[in-house]
Specification:
Blueprint: H1 2-21, H2 26-43, H3 48-55, E1 58-63, E2 70-75, H4 76-102, H5 108-133, H6 150-160, H7 166-190, H8 197-215, H9 222-236, H10 244-252, H11 261-277, H12 289-304, H13 308-332, H14 349-375, H15 387-395, H16 401-411, H17 416-444
Antiparallel strand pairs: 1-2
Helix pairs in contact: 2-3, 2-6, 2-13, 4-7, 4-10, 4-13, 5-7, 5-14, 6-7, 8-9, 9-10, 11-12, 13-16, 14-15, 14-17, 15-17, 16-17
Length: about 450
Amino acid sequence: MSKPRKLTIGRRMVRHSRRFLNYPWAGGVILLICVVAAMLLANLPHTKAIYHSILTTPLTFTVGEGGTLFSFSLDVERFINDGLMVVFFFVVGLEIKREMIAGQLASLRQAILPVVAAVGGMLFPALIYTLFNIGSDYAGGWGIPTATDIAFAVAILSVMGRMVPLSLKIFLTALAIVDDLGAILVIALFYGGEINWACLLLIAIIIGILYLFRREGIYKVRFYMIPAILVWYLFYNSGIHATMAGVIMAMIIPSQPQISKRTFLRRVKYGVEEFKLRDRKGVEVLSNHEQYHALCRVRHAANDAISMSQRLEHMLSPYISYLIIPIFALANAGVEIQSPEELDIFSTTMGWGIFFGLVVGKPLGIFTASWLAVRLKVAVMPSGADWKMLLAVACLGGIGFTMSIFIDTLAFMNDPFVLDSGKIAVLLASTTASIVGIVLITLFSQYKGKIRPTPVKA
């Protein structure tokens, strides 16, 4: 009797897990749990040594006996930041490309407000940080407060439910996508190393070959996989951060399906008619080869009607939200605190710059740029929204977490103390921005009823 009960409990847990993962705020919750776990692992007496030893464990990839043909080494933390995060930037690139082709950035009228707001939301924090740190050893960290973490921002908007107009949710999502593009450019242009032009030339040749693949209608993922790995390795040694490989590959991946909607409908119609024609009473599809082949034709038609970029984005997005970003948080949010004084982010001008850049600069830049764009009539206000609610939503732009920590890692990788101080400042500033945004949304919302976050089917 106990065995069936175990199966029932297991199925119930799986059902509840799937339901939880369908909520748009699930990724933010998992990310927050990983942040807390990383801080505990880095500071508890029995775990901090193990935690740091795992991150510094070397990983070696060799080809040939003893690496005679090829050998490549990096530690676990660098593998996460320079390797796994490439997949994150690849999906970000796919999202940006989709929005530019058929989404909120597809037309000038749709794109102008979030684009202008995103630019303002990057310039103001960078300016505030620079004012605090001009001429100091921390001046290179100006890019840290310029980024917005879309996972946390969307999670909070989802939890707030109907208190936030749908138009503003779309506005913040589009803004965060443009913001990601800006962060990618900042990383590529300002946080790389000495440029290796030979590597960049080889990258250009490979990209040219992949472009020919796309023009010739080659839509198989396997033809792009090995070149993608080569592009990553060349970027890793080029002086431009390796995560740019993900963005470049996202832009070159075919975004057009192999067949049109009309061809798809014709093939499906033929397959369905063939399936009906080959039906034999009392014979299941398992034993009816003609019906099986008809179904295969319908399946192939469906696959050919979905572009490679859409298929990859849909396939990889759950891994980004529930695996890669949580792993990044576990590896990078673990700041070992030697004394309570280290939590005082205002003991350095860097802490002031990051905190006020995210908490004040972000919403001020987003709001001011949006106000100017609407007043000058180059953009229109999101429907159903007012300026108070736009300001409240803009405060959520100050949640910099993932991208801000990533830029902090690049800016101060050679100074562990400054690096950890920057992480603490990002965490506290992002928490403050979240609280301020939630409070203002609650105060300014016209809907004071029960908050009902709605699950989204994967």
